[in-house]
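RECORD TYPE: inverse folding
INPUT: structure tokens
STRUCTURE:
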């Protein structure tokens, strides 16, 4: 394979996609990589799991839906899509408002890390597995995430920076999650990823003057990939009713709350980015939570009550505690840091205490992307 002739958008396997990025790594930049290396509660992490347990999953209870989904992934509708073409308008990085530039680059680096985190996990499952159903799925998902990460890196390179993905694979800390926690966390991150990308895409479709960077034009096909990935995890959970009942409903509530709260706090750390897009972060969060909750009714027996009077103010308190925490950490003020941690922990507990809404899970799991 001649890596100078090919692009990650055309890579049909994850190995090929990564080899192309490896060849580009000589351009990659320490600043971006060190940001991607950070491990805090809010930054994207890398995961590892019990691959043997995952490999042993029998998908026969959902065979019909499973085969349809795998066929859709094998058809590869987005092959060649994630590359710069004539729709890619020139970006004036030099003339960009410095605060916007800082927040936008932070957004791109953290999105790239999140995409790549999925890629690494899925690729490892595909490599270790022997179950044909499981390895086929994870091969396709890893392929998609390698393209997504590669495309964001293309955008970053124009600003003179990029994330060294090979270095991250080797050096970033991996967090171990049991397979069921991987299902909850990854299912939700795929579905919330879909909801985030489609909400931004629809907003910019209606307000094209707000599109300050061309990458947003790619979000529709992009989120359809994420949608399919989410569908796959929904089917995996459907194979075993225990995963979504009994004590596990508490875990589902925990993951829903953690994923929603993380999104809220992180987005509120990028005010200039959202102002430039013409997006109110509170409106955006509510919109995304609503869509994600609606989608997750396909498999989760409960949804969070995002209309509860305590929901929004508690998220705001959590957000404020996090701002305080970041400042105290930077200024090396241990007491203030401890106080901020307590407030953040209390706010999170208080979110968990809000009663959730029960949901009757439908017999048929599969959904289509309708937003
Ligand atoms: Fe992705
Ligand atoms: Fe994905």
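DESIGNED SEQUENCE:
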């Amino acid at each position: 394979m001649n890596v100078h002739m090919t692009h990650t958008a055309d890579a049909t396997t994850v190995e090929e996609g990564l080899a192309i990025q490896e060849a580009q790594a000589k351009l990659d930049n320490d600043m971006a990589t060190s940001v991607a290396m950070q491990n805090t509660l809010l930054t994207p992490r890398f995961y590892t799991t019990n691959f043997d347990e995952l490999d042993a999953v029998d998908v026969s209870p959902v065979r019909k839906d499973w085969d349809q989904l795998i066929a859709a992934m094998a058809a590869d509708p987005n092959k060649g899509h994630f590359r710069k073409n004539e729709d890619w308008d020139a970006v004036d990085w030099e003339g960009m408002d410095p605060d916007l530039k800082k927040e936008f680059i932070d957004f791109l680096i953290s999105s790239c890390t999140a995409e790549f985190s999925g890629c690494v996990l899925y690729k490892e499952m595909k490599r270790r597995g022997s179950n044909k159903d499981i390895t086929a799925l994870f091969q396709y998902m890893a392929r998609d995430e390698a393209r997504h990460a590669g495309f964001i890196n293309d955008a970053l390179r124009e600003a003179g920076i990029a994330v060294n993905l090979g270095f991250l694979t080797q050096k970033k800390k991996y967090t171990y999650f049991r397979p069921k926690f991987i299902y909850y966390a990854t299912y939700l991150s795929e579905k919330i990823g879909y909801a985030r990308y489609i909400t931004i895409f629809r907003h910019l479709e209606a307000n094209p003057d707000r599109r300050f960077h061309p990458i947003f034009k790619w979000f529709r096909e992009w989120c359809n990939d994420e949608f399919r990935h989410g569908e796959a995890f929904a089917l995996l959970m459907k194979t075993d009713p225990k995963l979504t009942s009994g004590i596990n409903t508490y875990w589902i509530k925990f993951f829903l709350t953690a994923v929603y709260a993380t999104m809220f706090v992180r987005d509120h750390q990028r005010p200039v980015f959202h102002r430039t897009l013409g997006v109110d972060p509170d409106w955006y969060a509510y919109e995304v939570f609503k869509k994600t909750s609606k989608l997750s009714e396909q498999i989760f027996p409960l949804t969070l009550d995002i209309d509860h009077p305590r929901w929004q103010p508690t998220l705001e308190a959590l957000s404020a505690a996090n701002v305080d925490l970041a400042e105290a950490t930077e200024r090396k003020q241990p007491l203030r840091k401890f106080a901020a941690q307590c407030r953040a922990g209390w706010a999170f507990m208080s979110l968990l205490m809000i009663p959730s809404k029960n949901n009757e899970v439908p017999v048929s799991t599969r959904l289509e992307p309708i937003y």
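NOTES: The pocket of fe (ii) ion (ligand 1) is lined by residues 115, 118, 144-145, 148, 225-226 (CB under 6 Å).
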